[in-house]
């Protein structure tokens, strides 16, 4: 540890154990290590203060029972498959969770530092894309939320949200439209045009074929040939439309809500994402409304990755990172405070 850093310490489960006094062996190790490396005292104490001052001790203590219960359930479910050769302790589970999340908390602290405000630059962005490594979620200038699948891209018109709300899609995207009666939202792709107003839908556009799944609201699907438009259908919630050829009128059918819901939560990635966008993306993916009290979500960021996780699991991690608690006020409303 010649180049000791705060982030490096925060990623060490044994160091978290030391800070929360969860394992006597780890406490002894780090106390002895600090005596042998006094030159690192300042860095060591800064990392220790971060763990304690942000409430991790209390949270970790509260998580002990849950961690033990989950571990017991895991061991019981796997006992029939193969013998358990090595016991796993609750403090190890807690420390591993805390170590992984401390980096997210570190991002939150860094986000509070003054940084150049760039709204003008963001507003001028005309091209959005998701590479081969993962999905990408973002907000358009009118607060419409878009989730792009891997290897997909979206281009918006230079007069977007002024004279029109026209976008061009290549690949697959999920759209949660911000209602604006004076400017209908439309997506062009692969020779088709989907027009919506106050709607949430998924659309896939590849050369010669299109697939639309409507979650909320209403959309109009048209086929474009030069300057001519041919009306194909109107979709109601939980209806889909698919066409595999420009000479095909397509097929309309009903789909199960869980089909789209499962796709939305396959992978959710946040990388220094403003907390306001994080909340909106969680709302969009899980069809809930989240209210946050006691903090300014415009001044915080969050980093994390989820794959096929339940809403409760996502909220557990998010609230752990921001040192808040959540509760369901009803089936579709969540309060974070």
Helicity range: 25-40%
Number of helices: 10
Mean pLDDT level: 80
Tell me, briefly, the overall form. Answer: elongated
For the record, the CATH architecture of the largest domain stands as Sandwich
- Chain oligomer state: single chain
CATH topology of the largest domain: Jelly Rolls
CATH class of the largest domain: Mainly Beta
Low-confidence region ranges: 54-62, 78-94, 109-123
Radius of gyration: 24 Å
Number of domains: 3
What is the N-to-C succession of helices and strands?
A: HHHHHHHEEEEEEEEEEEEEHEHEEHEE
Please describe what this structure looks like:
With 337 residues, this protein is α+β, with helices and mostly antiparallel strands. It has three domains: 6-111, no CATH class; 119-261, Jelly Rolls; 266-336, Phage tail protein beta-alpha-beta fold (3-Layer(bab) Sandwich), CATH 3.55.50.30. The protein is built from ten helices and 18 strands. Strands 1, 2, 3, 4, 5, 6, 7, 8, 9, 10, 11, 12 and 13 form a 13-stranded mixed sheet that branches. It has a three-stranded mixed sheet with strand order 15-18-17, with helices on one face. A hairpin with a 2-residue loop joins strand 6 and strand 7. Helix 2 crosses helix 6 and helix 5 (56-79) crosses helix 6 (90-111). The longest helix is centred in the first third of the chain and has 24 residues, at 56-79. Residues 54-62, 78-94 and 109-123 have low confidence and may be disordered.
Please give a handful of descriptors for the protein shown.
13-stranded mixed beta sheet, 337 residues, alpha+beta, Phage tail protein beta-alpha-beta fold, 31% strand
């Amino acid at each position: 540890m010649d180049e000791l850093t705060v982030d490096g310490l925060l990623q060490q489960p044994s160091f978290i154990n030391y800070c929360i006094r969860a394992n006597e062996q780890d406490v002894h190790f780090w106390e002895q290590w600090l005596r042998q490396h006094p030159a690192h005292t300042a860095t060591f104490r800064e990392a220790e203060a971060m763990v304690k001052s942000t409430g991790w001790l209390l949270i970790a203590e509260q998580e002990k029972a849950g961690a033990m219960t989950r571990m017991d359930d895991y061991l019981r479910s796997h006992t029939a498959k193969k013998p358990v050769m090595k016991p796993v302790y609750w403090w190890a589970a807690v420390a591993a969770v805390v170590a992984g999340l401390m980096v997210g908390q570190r991002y939150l602290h860094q986000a509070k530092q003054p940084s150049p405000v760039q709204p003008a630059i963001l507003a001028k962005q005309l091209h959005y894309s998701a590479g081969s490594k993962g999905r990408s979620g973002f907000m358009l200038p009118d607060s419409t939320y878009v989730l792009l699948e891997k290897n997909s891209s979206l281009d918006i018109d230079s007069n977007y949200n002024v004279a029109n709300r026209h976008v061009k899609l290549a690949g697959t995207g999920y759209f949660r439209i911000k209602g604006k009666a004076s400017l209908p939202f439309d997506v062009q792709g692969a020779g088709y045009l989907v027009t919506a107003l106050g709607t949430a839908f998924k659309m896939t556009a590849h050369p010669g074929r299109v697939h639309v799944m409507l979650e909320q609201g209403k959309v109009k699907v048209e086929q474009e040939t030069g300057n001519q438009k041919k009306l194909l259908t109107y979709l109601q919630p939980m209806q889909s439309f698919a066409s595999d050829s420009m000479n095909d009128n397509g097929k309309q059918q009903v789909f199960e809500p869980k089909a789209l819901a499962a796709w939305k939560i396959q992978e959710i990635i946040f990388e220094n994402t403003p907390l306001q966008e994080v909340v909106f993306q969680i709302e969009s993916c899980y069809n809930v409304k989240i209210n946050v009290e006691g903090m300014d979500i415009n001044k915080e960021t969050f980093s994390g990755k989820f794959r096929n996780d339940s809403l409760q699991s996502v909220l557990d991690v998010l609230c752990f990172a921001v040192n808040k608690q959540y509760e369901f006020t009803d089936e579709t409303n969540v309060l974070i405070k």
